[in-house]
Amino acid sequence: MTNDTDLEAEIQRLLTEHDRIAEQGITVQRRDHLVVLGGEVESAQRRDEICRQISSHFPELEITCDIGITRAQAPSEVEEIS
Amino acid sequence: MIRIAAVGDVHVDKDVVGRYRPALEELPDRADALLIAGDLTRHGTVDEAKCFAQEFGGLGVPVVVVLGNHDHQSDQQDEVTKTIEDAGITVLEGAATVLEIRGHRLGVAGTKGFGGGFAGACASNFGEREMKDFVGTAERYAADLERALKSVECDALVALTHYAPVPETLVGEPLEIYAFLGCYQLGRSIDAAGAALALHGHAHHGSERGRTPGGVPVRNVAHPVIKQAYNVYQLLSEEVDTTLIGAR
Ligand SMILES: [Fe+2]
Ligand SMILES: [Fe+2]
């Protein structure tokens, strides 16, 4: 099995270069027995696809997904630039 | 007073269509124009560009965008640009546009930009051909931005890029990748021309606020950074007025 540092790089390249994902903003953190995924994406389908792809490429890993969906509500404040 | 809405890194594909629309319907009540700082699509395909145009077109206010690195992924940036322009959206690359807003002239000059890094940790135009190409590309984008900024006569000038012109708005990203997130040459161009505001995206884990060495305010408007459909910035204020925007 690859070491932890290479694993993180491999997961990140998979997420960036896989043509159904193309996400560069996902964080990968190793805990004792599992890998925690973080960051935000634009849809629930994208989050689920990420978890599905990592599980199928690294079947020996236990994955926990903390990836959020970026909120898209209208703002309530304005910032004055000076 | 001019109010501009801004966001970046919306990465639109079929699964995103409709997510921004409720907030966008309210945009004309809140701002006079919308600027989008690149990564409009997921892989830069024409189909995705159509999804983007559907989601961000026909707003009732001018929409001005630059492309991001994702919009170049399929080597179809020209077709992507055309698809977006056909929807009435202005795409800037080393170019500028002037919007007439409430009796003011708002100038927007834009480029995608490129990486290369910042003072103390930047790539040099030296060595292998590949390295000189990398740095040369960044310098070309920065020169194009400076020329575009200097080409307009307006009351307020905004620089719009995908890559970051300063490192402050990258805080939160791993230091090791700063050189892939922006370059100091963009900041130098903005300072050389002068601007009221510089907007960029690309750094999804970065921070919102910074300034160029010359003092121009910089805002990272990447969607995961601002965590709402768009931010609103007020320029040319006659009086200090940062109260809530009246939501009708
Ligand atoms: Fe992005
Ligand atoms: Fe990007």
From TrEMBL, chain A:
Pfam families referenced in this protein's UniProt entry, alphabetically: BON (PF04972)
Domain BON: 3-50
Protein name according to UniProt: BON domain-containing protein
Organism classification: Bacteria, Bacillati, Actinomycetota, Actinomycetes, Micromonosporales
From TrEMBL, chain B:
Cross-referenced SUPFAM superfamilies: Metallo-dependent phosphatases
UniProt-listed Pfam families: Metallophos
Keywords, ordered alphabetically: Hydrolase, Metal-binding
Domain Calcineurin-like phosphoesterase as annotated: residue spans: 2-205
Bilayer-spanning residue ranges: none
Source organism, top-level taxon: Bacteria
InterPro entries the record matches: Calcineurin-like_PHP (IPR004843), Metallo-depent_PP-like (IPR029052), Metallophosphoesterase_sf (IPR051158), UCP008292 (IPR016538)
UniProt keyword Hydrolase, yes or no: yes
Coiled-coil ranges (or none): none
KW Acetylation (keyword) present: no
PANTHER family, per database record: PHOSPHODIESTERASE YAEI, TRANSMEMBRANE PROTEIN WITH METALLOPHOSPHOESTERASE DOMAIN-RELATED
Protein name per its UniProtKB record: Metallophosphoesterase
Species this chain originates from: Paractinoplanes aksuensis
